[in-house]
Write a structure and sequence with these properties.
The complex is a heterodimer.
Chain A (H helix, E strand, L loop, with lengths): L2 E3 L4 E5 L4 E3 L2 E3 L6 E7 L6 E7 L6 E3 L2 E6 L4 E6 L8 E8 L8 E2 L3 E6 L1
Parallel strand pairs in A: 2-12
Antiparallel strand pairs in A: 1-4, 3-9, 5-6, 5-10, 7-8, 8-9, 10-11, 10-12
Chain B lengths: L4 E3 L2 E4 L5 E6 L6 E7 L5 E8 L2 E5 L7 E4 L6 E5 L8 E8 L8 E2 L3 E5 L1
Classes of the chains: A mainly beta, B mainly beta.
Chain lengths: 115, 114
Amino acid sequence: AQKVTQAQTEISVVEKEDVTLDCVYETRDTTYYLFWYKQPPSGELVFLIRRNSFDEQNEISGRYSWNFQKSTSSFNFTITASQVVDSAVYFCALSENSGNTPLVFGKGTRLSVIA
Amino acid sequence: EPEVTQTPSHQVTQMGQEVILRCVPISNHLYFYWYRQILGQKVEFLVSFYNNEISEKSEIFDDQFSVERPDGSNFTLKIRSTKLEDSAMYFCASRMDRLNTEAFFGQGTRLTVV
C-alpha cells in the first residue's frame, strides 16, 4: 500500500532563511511518481513538481529545489531565501503504477515565513 | 492557460439536503477526479472517472455520493443527503492521460453543512 509521511506539521522561519520540508514515502511499485503541491491561504492546490521514480537527478527551479533519494525513500523540498509569499501548506503526494493510480497525499507541512 | 473550474466556490446547505458540486475539467483531458479536504487535514481521494464510468473509488465514496459527466464538459459530484461530516473543501482534478502527466486541480468548493 502506498503511504506518504510528512513528519513536520508546522515550520516557522524568518524571511531569507532556507527551509527544508521533508517527505518520506512507501510503495511496493518500482515505477511511481512523486509530487509537491502548494496550498496558499486562498485554498487552491498549486502544482510545483512531478518526479518519476527513475529520475533521481535533483532539480532546481529558482529558489526551489528538490532532493530525491530512493535509498531513503525521500523526496525533500528546499526553499532558499524564503519569502513571506512562501507561507502556505505544502503537500507531498505519490502515484503508483506508473502514475495510473490517484494521488495519495501526505498530511502537509504548514510553513510560516515571518518578515 | 487552461484551468479546471469549479462552481460554486462556497456552498452552505442544511443537513439532509442534496448538493451538486460542479467542475469543468480542461477540455482535452480524459481522466477526472474528486478529492476532499476536511479543514486542516490532508487531501483525500474520493473517486476517479474515465470513459464515462468510475474507474476507482475510495472507502469514503459510499452510496451517498455519485458522479456523472452529463454533457461532455461538466463533471459533477452529488451528495444525496448531506451530513455534518461532509463539510470540507472538495477539489476536482483532471489529467490528460494516465501516464507521465500531472493532475491539475480546480480552486475547490468549500461545502458547509449546517
